[in-house]
Design goal:
By secondary structure, the chain is mostly helical. The chain is 76% helix and 0% strand. It is globular.
Length: 111
């Protein structure tokens, strides 16, 4: 398959989810921009919320991602299915940390 053909398939796969991708990008960028104007960096202390919420969201996503894809955990049979589920959950956990860390930094900075 050519590069153009691959990009076409990816575009049609992502097309129904563009609204969610845009929403996630906005939710990611707004706290990052606001916090960075107030001196935030990834090395700063985020607080309790950025330590405990992302792992909790990671564990919850292990159970909620199959529901989102209109599946059940019983259909996750092979090691490839499990690796996809764990990889997607790790991505959700990292995204949660990237969103909650600057928010907790801003909350602690005001205190």
């Amino acid at each position: 398959m050519t590069f153009t053909g691959t990009m076409t398939v990816l575009w049609y796969s992502a097309l129904p989810w563009l609204w969610l991708i845009a929403l996630m990008l906005i939710v990611f960028l707004i706290p990052q921009i606001i916090a960075r104007t107030k001196g935030y960096g990834f090395g700063e202390k985020g607080g309790m919320g950025s330590k405990y919420l992302p792992p909790l969201i990671f564990v919850l996503s292990l159970f909620l991602l199959p529901i989102h894809t209109q599946s059940t955990i019983a259909y996750v049979n092979t090691w490839v299915d499990w690796m996809n589920l764990i990889g997607a959950s790790i991505g959700v956990g990292i995204y949660a940390w990237l969103v909650f860390h600057p928010i907790c930094y801003l909350r602690n900075k005001k205190a």
